[in-house]
Amino acid sequence: MQLNKPFTTVTPTLDGDVLAVLASAEVTFTISQIQRIITTASGEGIRKVLTRLSAQGVVLHDQVGRTNTYRLNTEHVAAEPIMALSRLASTFLARLEAHLDEWGAELRYAAVFGSAATGRMRLDSDIDLFLVRATDHDADATAWEQRVTELGRLVTALTGNDGRIVEYTEDELRVAAATGEPLLNDVSKQGLTIAGTRAWLNEQLRPADKAAPMTRS
User: Fold this and answer.
1) Taking the CB of residue 193, how many other CB atoms lie within 10 A of it?
2) In terms of domains, do 58 and 100 share one?
3) Which Pfam family name is an example for this entry (predicted)?
4) Strand partners for 192
C-alpha cells in the first residue's frame, strides 16, 4: 500500500483521491480547490466524481451564488469506513507504537523514515524503520533478533510492503554521528518517531567535542 494514498488500497480511481480530500477536513470544497490538491486530475473529471458520489449520498452538494460546494456527508453509513481509510497512515503508526511499547528499556528510539515518512511512497516502496538499542542493557541478543524479525513481519502484515530495518546501538549511533552519516540527518529531520523522543535522538547526534564557552577569571 501507499501510506500517502490510502484509498488506493480499495480503489485506483479518481473517486478515492476525491474522497481523501473531502475526508481531510470538515469543511466545504469547490471543484477548483480540490483540483489544486489533486494536481493530476481535470476539473471535469472531479466534477463527474462528485456528481456520482452525491447521487450515492456520500457527498453533500450545495450552491452558494454561482459556486458549487461539496463536503463529505458524515452522517452517511459509509462515512465511518471512509474516515477510517483516510487515517490509514496514522493508524499504522499507532499500531507500531503499541507494538514497540512492549520492548521495554532495551529500545531507546525508533522512527519510520524514508518515503513512508515524506509522503513519496510508491506501491512497491519499502517501509524504512530506524532502531536504536541500549548499549549497556543486559539482554539476550537472540531475543532482540527475534523481536526485530517479528517487527519486519508485522510491517508487511499491516501494509503489504517489505520492512527495511536499520539498527544501531547507542555507541554505534554516536560513532556514526561523529562521522557524518547522512541517514541520521534524514531520520532527525524527517523521521516519524514511534518510540522514545526526538529530543533524545538529537542529543545523541550533537557533536561530543563541542567547545565549552570561555570564561574570564
Assistant:
1) 19
2) no
3) NTP_transf_2
4) 112
> What distance, in Å, lies between the first and last C-alpha atoms of the chain?
63
Q: Quick check: 27 and 60 in contact, CB under 8 A?
A: no
pLDDT tens, residue by residue, 121-137: 999 999 999 999 998 75
Helices (H), 31-121: 31-37, 43-55, 79-86, 88-100, 115-118
Report residue 88 as a C-alpha cell. 490509514
Q: How confident is the model at residue 138, as a pLDDT?
A: 60
Q: Supply the CATH number for residue 21's domain.
A: 1.10.10.10
Cβ neighbours for 147, distance < 8 A, ≥ 6 positions apart: 103
Q: Which of 66, 86, 106 delimits the end of a domain?
A: 86
Residues 6+ positions from 80 with CB-CB distance below 8 Å: none
- Going by pLDDT thresholds of 50, 70 and 90, the confidence category of residue 210 is very low
Measure the CA dihedral 114/3/158/172, to 10°.
10
Please report, for residues 7, 19, 67, 133, the alpha-carbon distance to residue 81 in angstroms, rounded to integers and kept in the order given. Answer: 11, 11, 29, 37
What is the grid cell recorded at 117? 515518512
Residue 108 falls in which region: left (phi positive, over 0), alpha (psi -120 to 50) or beta: alpha
Supply 133's cell numbers.
538499542
Q: What pTM was estimated for this model as a whole? A: 0.85
